[in-house]
Amino acid sequence: MTLQEMQNQELRDELFLRSQVDVTKCYQCGKCTAGCPVAEHMDYGPRQVMRMAQMGLVEEAMKTKAIWLCATCETCSTRCPKGVEVAKVMETLRIMAKERGYIAEKNIDKFNNIYNTIVKSLGRMYEPGLIVSRNVATGHLFQDTSYGIPYLAKQKLNLVPHKPKNSEEIKSIFAKAAAMDEAERGNR
Amino acid sequence: MERVGVFVCHCGSNIGSVVDCAKVAEELRNYPNVVHSVDYKYMCSEPGQNLIKEAVKEHNLNRVVVCSCSPRMHENTFRACVAQAGLNPYMFEMANIREHCSWVHAGHNEEATAKAIDLAKMAVAKVCKNKELKKGHSPVTKRALVVGGGIAGIQAALDIANNGYQVDILERTPSIGGKMAQIDKTFPTIDCSACILTPRMVEASSHPNIKLITFAELEKVEGYVGNFDVTIRSKARSVDMSKCTGCGTCMTKCPGKADDEFNMNLQKRPAIYTPFPQAIPNKPVIDRESCLKFKSRKDGKDVCGICAKVCPAGAIDYEQEDEIFVEHYGAIVMATGYDQFDHSVYGEYGYGKYPDVISGLHFERLVNASGPTMGHIVRPSDHKEPKTVVMVKCVGSRDPEHGKSYCSRTCCMYSAKQATLIRDHCPDTKVYIFYMDVRTPGKGYDEFYNRTREEYGVEYIRGRVSKIYQDGEQLIVKGEDSLLGRPVEILADMVILADAMIPQNDAAKMAQIVGIGYDNDGWFTEAHAKLGPVETHTAGIFLAGACQGPKDIPDTVAQAGAAAVKVCGLLSKDQLETDPCTSEIDPALCAGCGHCVGVCPYKAISLETIEERKAGKTISRQVAKVNASLCQGCGACTVTCRSSAANLNHFTNAQILAEVDALCQTIL
Questions:
Q1: Is some CB atom of chain B closer than 8 A to the CB atom of A2?
Q2: Which domains does chain A have, with CATH numbers?
Q3: What distance in Å separates the CA atoms of residue B614 and residue B605, rounded to the nearest whole number?
Q4: Predicted model pTM
Q5: What is the DSSP letter of A163?
Q6: CATH numbers and ranges of domains, chain B
Q7: What is the pLDDT of residues B650-663, one digit of tens each?
Q8: Which of A2, A51, A52 is closest, CB to CB, to B489?
Q9: For B454, which of A25, A47, A52 is closest by C-beta distance?
């Protein structure tokens, strides 16, 4: 297959439109990969994901594990000599991938879903709920449970969820974000 | 009576930490002819020099030896110091106890000290045989020759002429202008090349101090700095320049056809032609290889002659012949430029046979408004606009196996420029550039490259192209995206190869004619890579532009200006000082064998006939004679001479033998 057949201009445009990041600015120096704390666990480093994005191989970029492993710490964006927001591209790719059902790291996606559900309903994080739900959802029932007892003993975890004041306002933030997303989709 | 003073320098710890300088001074104090010997921390410093000057007065010294660094470093310093003390500067010798001793024998202090003593004794032995020498003088012809009429030559000539000196531009082709005239736009500002070049061409042609000698070849260079005799062959134009008005009627009527070199053979031109519309001089020449009349004459016939019939001025002269004449110059600037690498050596790129695989200069003509396509970017094969263009960099460059090992310096920028031109002319055309590295060291260059990618949407792919082949009407380009680590294939309509810059094919011959050096690739060598970038090893000959190595226009113009300053500095002198350390031949000993004539690299020795009286008869015989202005003091003649007639002043056989004797005595 020739390069032109593999390149997808529509997806490239969509990535730019949704991320507002011009990936052509990237000159592939590799500083993002060099500073990325999870790069060694990725199938492709951030630089290679950026290369796929700028070459119009967006489909391929959406299928990488790297975009799911990205912790959005934004070290890459902060240090980039060309001001490319790599983490933003990663996030946009994750959103686009999810819409198309490309989920290369199912457990990370499940974690993200549970996290969002908890924050949306309770207004802030409830760790024991997250751990239990995640372990049930992923089937790794006893993963990391050994940490639980010492954490509880040191009162780093609380079995009772803590409900912040004005948790309704946090719900409205979620609602507004959903509406913005809907509007943006409508514009496209 | 020789009274020698010895001064041993510590050079801080450079010498002092290895050689026992006090011991060297002490040892030398007892050596014959030495009347004064001391050591000091820094001999080259002002107090150090004062030490020498005072010692000369106090001890009535008539010879001085300084044991310190290499003469390349401080010989002139100490010669001046000795001269200020009232001695002849050549009554001084330097013993190199740093580069030749302390630096190479660190850790062997005792042996190094012994060697330093030997070196000092040798210098004393030699200085006792030194003679007072005086610098000579030679006159200067206040006129310069610039070889090559491209931008380098034009700029150098203008700068020399504007300083008030006469200068001739010698150009091989019918017009000045060179490669820059062929180029469409110039990076990084995208000014039109012709628009900035032609005013300079006009200025050069109308300058009262500049004479253009076009359609002429350099045949021979004789003489020396300030006094060059240059033999020039003015090729037969077959057009009388004094009569021709440049109306161009002959060119429109000529039935002869030839490949148009100026347009990279993309079209034909008549046999009587000017290379391009803005040519200077704008008077045609007949290309006798393709002229029907001259071709028919070879078969014993005499046909055509249309140009002569239509010429209203009667300027056509079929009987004109090459003219050879000699001109005199004080300085020469070599500005012979470069040539483009021929990519047909690459089988994988189609041996130069695919019509739509073109070179960078081809593209310049394709995109130029006065070019064969009137500036429309089309495929040479079917004249259709290409929808996908692939550019390949480093074709012939950085390829020691098949091309040249060096980087051609200009290709990264001209490829970026050509890519932006394509995107400007044909916004729907996609451009891919294969590269190994992007090298943009110039003012505004990297910014230009980044705009090419970010604003013009040109896609750069890191990797060398391994294969180009025809697929129907299109070309398939195979390379690797080495950033992603996978092979890529691109279906292209046109491929532009960024061919390397190479020396002119006769650069080596040209260097031999003028007597300057050239490297393995054929580029002319500068006197010093850093400190003498426009000088050559031959005094009075300078370099400008790409004949010295790949160079872009800004660097070429800068170097041309630098060469012009050197020329003006030389021509501003009424007389030149000459180094007295030149060879001399004793006619009484010379057998006239001529071996020295053959080995002299500077053509400084010639045979002449002398008359002498022998046994009551006058006989004439041949002896060698050295032209002191040309002699560079290399000493090749002295070692070749079988009768020891040749002697190098300041390094005479007697002086060298005295040194050897001094060394042998210490060993025994």
A1: yes
A2: 3-99 (1.10.1060.10), 106-187 (no CATH)
A3: 25
A4: 0.82
A5: P
A6: 4-133 (3.40.50), 143-235+322-337+504-571 (3.50.50.60), 249-310 (no CATH), 341-502 (3.50.50.60), 583-649 (3.30.70.3270)
A7: 999 999 999 999 99
A8: A2
A9: A25
